[in-house]
């Protein structure tokens, strides 16, 4: 392994602005799919509706069934000043880690529609805050909060999609198999599946679900000069019994997305824990142990997700594949096109 693979600058690239997807493909499976076959070092350009033709025989698919919550809230302080709050993750039943746009201090109260209130309890150095939510002076459990924000919250579109969320995003920024509420960002490789295609693939191949509640840290670029100095964010995960059975077997695994991959690989290193907090950082110096094939989107420069891709193919090949994708005008990021590495 070269020292170049450890330099954050090696994962930078220039992307024409017009290749940032701001709206989903319609229909979902009309997105483009770049297929890279490692054994023959060949690249194919197809559409996502061709995906199942490339699934290696005998493989099992692992999906992330997390569900995106309406994590973006707009409220006011007692002074009347406007505040934007983004829920990041539940810490426990009552404490919620959030990001707040607007100046706050400990004990600041923020008022929202539906008589919802938040009170700031702690200020963290990373810019996040801990708050408790109340309704009619009664502290809310996180599951109670979810019911309220489903009425008044907004879809937390990634910052590079520079537009307000709309009705379409409520269904499109969500996989067709989303089930477990808690993510503030979609597992984007999953967004390409239509209901029919998902059912078809699942009828032909072994499959199972894990849950990883994707946090906003997924968009945070690596800011250290060397990637090994990056403090990896932590996210809640839960591995179903069926997924555990597949992961404990010798069956080749095709992981649908980087979030499923992080979950599987965290489990591969900590086999006694089916649920908990995962903070695994995959890169060329920490390669996959259990995932054989991966479906993924095209990711941000200097992101841990791009480094994860490089953990499968190496830095040089990752750079080549991204160069090809830009030349072929693939759409990038959350609503963008996909890549299958087999």
Tell me the name of the CATH homologous superfamily of the largest domain. Answer: QueA-like
Order of helices and strands: EEEEEEEEEEEHHEHEEHEHEEHHE
Strand order across the largest sheet: 2-1-18-17-15-3-13-14-16
Let me know the largest β-sheet. Answer: 9 strands, mixed
Q: How large is the count of helical segments?
A: 7
Provide the CATH top-level class of the largest domain.
Alpha Beta
Estimate the strand proportion: 25-35%
Helix content range: 10-25%
Overall form? globular
So, CATH architecture of the largest domain?
A: 3-Layer(aba) Sandwich
What is the structural class? Answer: alpha+beta
Number of domains: 2
Radius of gyration over alpha carbons?
20 Å
- Euclidean distance between termini CA atoms: 21 Å
Low-confidence stretches: none
Number of strands: 18
> Which fold name corresponds to the CATH topology of the largest domain?
QueA-like
What does the average pLDDT come to?
96
Describe the structure.
It is a single chain. With 342 residues, the chain is of the alpha+beta class. The protein folds into two domains: 3-68 and 168-341, 3-Layer(aba) Sandwich (QueA-like); 72-152, Beta Barrel (Thrombin, subunit H), CATH 2.40.10. It has helices at 142-152, 167-172, 195-204, 241-247, 258-269, 304-313, 315-327, and strands spanning 32-37, 42-47, 60-64, 66-68, 72-77, 82-90, 96-101, 109-111, 116-123, 128-135, 138-139, 180-183, 206-212, 235-239, 253-256, 275-278, 291-297, 338-341. The strands form three sheets. Strands 2-1-18-17-15-3-13-14-16 form a nine-stranded mixed β-sheet. Helix 6 packs across helix 7. The longest helix is centred in the C-terminal third of the chain and has 13 residues, at 315-327. The radius of gyration is 20 Å and the shape is globular. The model has no long low-confidence stretch (mean pLDDT 96).
């Amino acid at each position: 392994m070269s020292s170049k693979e450890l330099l954050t600058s090696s994962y930078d690239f220039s992307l024409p602005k017009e290749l940032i997807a701001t709206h989903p493909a319609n229909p979902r499976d009309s997105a483009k799919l770049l297929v890279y076959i490692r054994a023959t070092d060949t690249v194919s350009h197809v559409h996502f509706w061709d995906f199942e033709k490339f699934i290696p025989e005998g493989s099992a698919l692992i999906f992330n069934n997390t569900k995106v919550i309406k994590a973006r809230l707009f409220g006011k302080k007692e002074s009347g000043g406007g505040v934007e709050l983004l829920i990041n993750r539940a810490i426990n039943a009552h404490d919620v880690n959030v990001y707040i746009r607007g100046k706050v201090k400990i004990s600041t109260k923020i008022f929202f529609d539906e008589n919802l209130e938040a009170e700031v309890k702690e200020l963290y150095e990373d810019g996040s805050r801990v708050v408790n939510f109340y309704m009619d002076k009664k502290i809310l459990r996180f599951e109670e909060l979810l019911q309220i924000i489903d009425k008044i919250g907004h879809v937390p579109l990634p910052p590079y999609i520079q537009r307000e969320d709309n009705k379409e995003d409520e269904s499109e920024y969500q996989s067709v198999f989303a089930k477990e509420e808690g993510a503030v960002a979609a597992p984007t490789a999953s967004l390409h599946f239509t209901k029919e295609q998902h059912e078809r693939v699942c009828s032909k191949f072994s499959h199972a679900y894990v849950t990883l509640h994707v946090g906003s840290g997924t968009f945070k670029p690596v800011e250290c000069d060397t990637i090994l100095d990056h403090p990896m964010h932590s996210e809640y995960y839960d591995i179903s019994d069926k997924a555990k059975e597949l992961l404990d077997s010798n069956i080749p695994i095709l992981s649908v997305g980087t979030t499923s991959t992080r979950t599987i690989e965290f489990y591969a290193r900590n086999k006694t824990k089916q649920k908990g907090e995962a903070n695994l950082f995959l890169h060329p110096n920490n390669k996959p142990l259990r995932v054989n094939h991966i479906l993924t989107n095209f990711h941000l420069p200097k992101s841990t997700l791009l480094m994860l891709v490089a953990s499968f193919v190496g830095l040089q090949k990752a750079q080549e594949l991204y160069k090809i994708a830009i030349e072929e005008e693939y759409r990038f990021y959350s609503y963008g096109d996909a890549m299958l590495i087999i």
